[in-house]
Amino acid sequence: MAKSYKIAVVVGSLRKESINRKAAEALVRLAPDNLDLEFVEIGALPLYDEDVEAAGAPQSWTRFREQISSADAVLFVTPEYNRSVPGVLKNAIDVGSRPYGQSAWAKKPAAIMTVSPGAIGGFGANHHLRQSLVFLDMPVLQQPEAYIGRGFELFDETGELKSDDTRSFFKSFIDSFAGWIERIA
Amino acid sequence: MAKSYKIAVVVGSLRKESINRKAAEALVRLAPDNLDLEFVEIGALPLYDEDVEAAGAPQSWTRFREQISSADAVLFVTPEYNRSVPGVLKNAIDVGSRPYGQSAWAKKPAAIMTVSPGAIGGFGANHHLRQSLVFLDMPVLQQPEAYIGRGFELFDETGELKSDDTRSFFKSFIDSFAGWIERIA
Question: What does the pLDDT average to over A107-130?
Fold first, then answer.
């Protein structure tokens, strides 16, 4: 039997009907059995401020850092805001990276899917996030790249992927991530 | 007499003793008389969430959008967090860009200075921010580029720039921004 891995799923949009959350949920359904995927919420994290840290980190920061630290790998599924990573996701990255020398992200394998309503599928956000993950020393799945465009057309009213081709791509993406985690674990 | 311009100053760090705030304050002191620079605070803006917008924007979002809208230009002075724009600043960018079609940033001339403790002076954050400003249709001062390294060595205990060379560069930067604003106004 394949070794099991715990994966933290971080979604970059807070919207209830977020197409990125739906995409993440589709990936969870398609994932191989040895991946245990858990959503980690980022909407209640106060904006990072070193003075606040010095006065005693808020409980939400500490809890978030523990959730990331306890995972074996991290799956990011995010929209693009203004050709970059949403502030809400970048704030979570910043909170998890601190205090200095105690980053919760360090060395954890990662994968990134970006989903957007337009045609270019969040390419700008995807690669801005990759630049941060270089610094954070997170080995990122390179292929398949996942820039998912036309996001509003992907899901039926029950949240299922409409197209078999898309489902097959999502399956190959999450399977590749599982392989990547095993390879470098 | 030169026409006067109102400049919103947005600092990407919330820390009280932030070297980026000190750099912004130094730029304010060195600015030509026809620039009226005002700090616009971003630390109390809730994380952007379209559902919250739909339910009625928080007063802090509305006030921030009005502050940016009423300015003729925007000066960004920011650290780099994890090789990108701090989450706190990116969230302000996102809040100001919404609701869709009503961006407060549109067409306002901008300048970016990044200040970091290390040697590369926030180059990563500077250019990630530039990518967002392309989308936001903000004409950005190109030269001089301002990647300020060794930030902890720049200021004396009163917050003054220690070196005449640095002061002269800061002066040329803010004068160039004034010229840029006049040119495209």
Answer: 98
Given a cut of 80, is residue A44 above it in pLDDT?
yes
Check if A75 contacts B (Cβ < 8 Å).
no
B14 touches chain A (CB under 8 A): yes
Q: CB of A90 within 8 Å of any CB in chain B?
A: yes
> Which residues in chain A are closer than 8 Å to B134, comparing Cβ atoms?
83
Residue-level pLDDT at A63:
98
Count how many domains chain B has: 1
Per-residue pLDDT reduced to its tens digit, B51-89: 999 999 999 999 999 999 999 999 999 999 999 999 999
Q: Which residues touch B54 (CB under 8 Å, ≥6 apart)?
A: none
Tokens of A72: 């074996």
B47 and A51 within 8 Å at the Cβ level: the answer is no
Output the pLDDT for position B1.
61
- Domain hosting B27: range is 5-184
**CB within 8 A of B178, min separation 6: which ones?**
B5, B31, B32, B34, B35
Domain containing residue B114: CATH number: 3.40.50.360
Q: pTM of the full predicted structure?
A: 0.97
Nearest chain A residue (CA) to B83: A132
